[in-house]
Write a structure and sequence with these properties.
Bound molecules: zinc ion
CATH topology: Rossmann fold
CATH superfamily: Creatininase
Largest sheet: 4 strands, parallel
Shape: globular
Oligomer: single chain
Radius of gyration: 21 Å
Low-confidence stretches: none
Number of helices: 10
Number of strands: 4
Mean pLDDT: 94
Order of helices and strands: HHEHEHEHEHHHHH
Helix content: 40-55%
CATH architecture: 3-Layer(aba) Sandwich
Number of domains: 1
């Protein structure tokens, strides 16, 4: 019996070892050319941040989500998945335990250097998958600023427009008020319940309020304290309503959408062609 188990383990281990891993850090140097070719020179950069997620789901929930979308999608449509990028815009949660908020110029430089290293290693197309809502202004600006100098690679951000059918099903499955289900609430708790149930202590979700405190009334004005004004507990929604079923639905939808994005990116030559055309014109100048 013991021998059979050992043999089975050896067989399965050997079988796994022969595959081409999707994770950058699991590839052997001898796999590199094959991984570049099979990926269509495409690398995924999963981005999250380390921050409080209510009292019940882990600090790394955002990177857990982004890493899972990346690896699950890459297993369907091959791409190489860069190790977790855990730095992001998170100045609104420095009053909470465990937050890692690095200065904006350092964040920019580390992300820039990371992208450059991915490209230097042979990738021509880089897809950012972002699991952190606080990055929603930062990443598009970072990508827009790519046009500041010539690049021999294209950088993409996956951002899904949820279709009406998905929204209808989501609202059918969701029990809490969708208007403030934003951070560690029913939706996000469900995702972690599906991906890492071992890290969720759902009974703690109601020990703090995730309701919008609505402490600012300044229509048409934006201010950095807007999030804290509404959600000083850095918790928005009702995590206690979360379910594995909802998490499975959300994750599968997201992964499907990333697979589609990967296929589009791998087939596309237009972005790099247009970038080259653009920089040829910039460098030609006006003299
Ligand atoms: Zn989150």
């Amino acid at each position: 019996m013991k021998l059979t188990l050992a043999l089975l383990f050896l067989i399965s281990f050997t079988a796994i070892a022969q595959d081409l891993p999707v994770k950058w850090e699991e590839l052997r140097a001898s796999d590199w050319d094959k991984a570049l070719e099979k990926s269509g020179y495409t690398c995924i950069l999963p981005m999250g941040v380390i921050e409080k997620h209510g009292l019940h789901v882990p600090l790394g929930s955002d990177i857990i989500k982004a890493r899972n979308w990346a690896t699950r999608a890459a297993e369907v449509e091959y791409a190489v998945v860069f190790p977790d990028f855990i730095y992001g815009q998170i100045f609104e949660a420095m009053h909470q335990p465990g937050t890692i908020a690095i200065p904006s110029d350092v964040l920019w430089a580390v992300l820039e250097a990371t992208i450059e290293e991915i490209a230097r290693n042979g990738f021509e197309k880089i897809l950012i998958l972002n699991g952190h809502g606080g990055n929603n202004n930062f990443i598009p600006y970072f990508i827009q600023a790519q046009l500041g100098k010539r690049r021999d690679y294209a950088l993409f951000l996956h951002s899904r427009d949820a279709d009406p059918e998905y929204n209808a099903k989501l609202n059918q499955l969701r029990e809490s008020d969708p208007s403030y289900d934003q951070h560690a609430g029913e939706r996000e708790t469900s995702e972690i319940l599906y991906l890492r149930p071992d890290l969720v202590i759902q009974e703690r979700a109601d020990d703090e309020s995730g309701k919008d405190m609505d402490r600012l009334d300044l229509p048409d004005l934006y201010t950095g304290i807007w999030w804290y004004a509404g959600f000083p507990n850095h918790y928005a929604g009702e995590g206690s309503a979360g379910s594995r079923e909802l998490g499975k639905f959300i994750t599968e939808y997201q992964v499907e959408s990333v697979v589609r994005a990967l296929r589009l990116i791998k087939e596309d030559d237009t972005v790099i062609e247009l970038q080259n055309e653009y920089f040829d014109r910039v460098e030609k100048g006006f003299r």
